[in-house]
Amino acid sequence: MSDKKVLTTNNGAPIADNQNSRTAGPQGPILIDDFQLIEKLAHFNRENIPERRVHAKGSGAHGTFTVTNDISKYSYASLFANVGKQTPIFARFSLVGGERGSSDTARDPRGFSVKFYTDQGNWDIVGNNTPVFFIRDPLKFPDFIHTQKRDPKTNLKDPQMMWDFWSLSPESLHQVTILFSDRGIPDGYRHMHGYGSHTYSLINKDGVRTWVKWHFRTEQGIKNIHPKKATEIAGTNPDSAQEDLFKAIEQGDYPKWRVYIQVMTEEQADNHPENPFDVTKVWSQKQFPLIEVGVMELNRNPENYFAEVEQSAFEPSNIVPGTGLSPDKMLQGRIFAYADAHRYRIGTNYQQLPINAPKCPVHNYQRDGAMRFYTPDNAPNYEPNSIDSAPKQQPQYAEPPMHVPAGTMDRHDHRVDGDYYSQPRALFNLMQSEQKQLLINNIIGSMKNVNHDIQIRQLKHFYKVHPDYGTGIAKGLGIDIDLIKN
């Protein structure tokens, strides 16, 4: 018997001729009974699944997470059980607003998501390369993303939409300042930090909850691309970040990130002057210093991009015992939105795909649906039941009650605090003079064709952050400074 692989149909039957369709005579019409032709054409029509509504273009790789510091006083999660413990991971990096064909050098936040295949289930951190976000209420998320996509009439990207929304949403100032700074265009994915961005929680064996912020700090060093160079790369190698990550791993130059947490007790949160669950703001690292947890290393490229990167599904609702969520409004919205996006885009059984499937046993009462291929043998599909061998709930894994501020259930205005300026001001003051000028030039380039009234509205916000910030942009746009001082 030959060692050559036999070409087959999807049902495994050998194919005798893959060059010619079945026809009625040499020049006759094609016959509908050519199931091989029908199968190839029908499958080809369905080879693309809908692209992600956000984070459409991305790159991914497999690797490991290794514990380097004991954090058992904060969490009893098995992946943190002891120093040296290693957990397999899959990480995906992405552009937030662009389509799958976007350039990797676009000015855009980068998604930074990690799936930990722990021995008690999959745990996902779904974050970005920035510690904050543009909005703090998920009700505004579809509106915001619409401004980052294409105008429904022209089908063009439109700075007018972006700045109109941002100028009416001053909570965006912190993220806007980061986006238009030198860190707005990272040099590939290896040279940027990652953040969980939201406030999450950890729970220890005594049932004590601690609020945490996750930080992934690149061991390769921060590198960014100047806008002019980014434009050149976009025209010559729009997949530069994908190529850089793949080649580095292929050559054994495995990228690493050192993983840290900031921690805040529930009592500290209750007395914190700012809302600790506001994703538009950071926690002071002087007050809440970084605590090392471990090291993430990427050391294996996907064998098939579609199967492992395009079909990978991350969701903040994937938590494991010893980890938890928080009252962060944006996080609460994403808990629903991400899993629902996967159900639409990939199918209701997306968690059974190899890239998403847990490495530990799965037992539940979900059944059927498109592409279902795993169902426990001889098991009921209802619960409670009286069958001893059927899966049962385990009360010892219950989370402690989560304290939330008392108050009325209503649509509370999330813009009542008024402090949109102190944290962007602190960031602006940290910048070197050349960084400030680059930030100002980048914003001028983006705002130059925006309506005058929107320019004035946004410039007033920049001026409140810092007079030099607003004045520098106003001069570049040819706008009288006196118009933005009040």
Based on DSSP secondary structure assignment, what is the total number of beta strands?
10
What's the level 1 CATH class of the largest domain?
Answer: Mainly Beta
Number of helical segments with 4 or more residues: 13
Mean pLDDT: 92
Q: Tell me, what's the shape?
A: globular
Rg, Å, rounded: 26 Å
> Low-confidence parts lasting 5 or more residues at pLDDT below 50?
none
Any idea how many domains?
A: 3
* Structural class computed from helices and strand pairing: alpha+beta
**Quaternary form:** single chain
CATH topology of the largest domain: Catalase HpII,  Chain A, domain 1
Beginning-to-end CA distance, first to last residue: 86 Å
**Architecture of the largest domain in CATH?**
Beta Barrel
Largest sheet: 10 strands, antiparallel
Strand content: 15-25%
Q: What is the CATH homologous superfamily assignment of the largest domain?
A: Catalase core domain
InterPro entries: Catalase (IPR018028), Catalase_3 (IPR040333), Catalase_AS (IPR024708), Catalase_clade1/3 (IPR024711), Catalase_core (IPR011614), Catalase_haem_BS (IPR002226), Catalase_immune_responsive (IPR010582), Catalase_sf (IPR020835)
Enzyme class: oxidoreductase
GO molecular function, one term: heme binding
Biased composition (Polar residues): 7-24
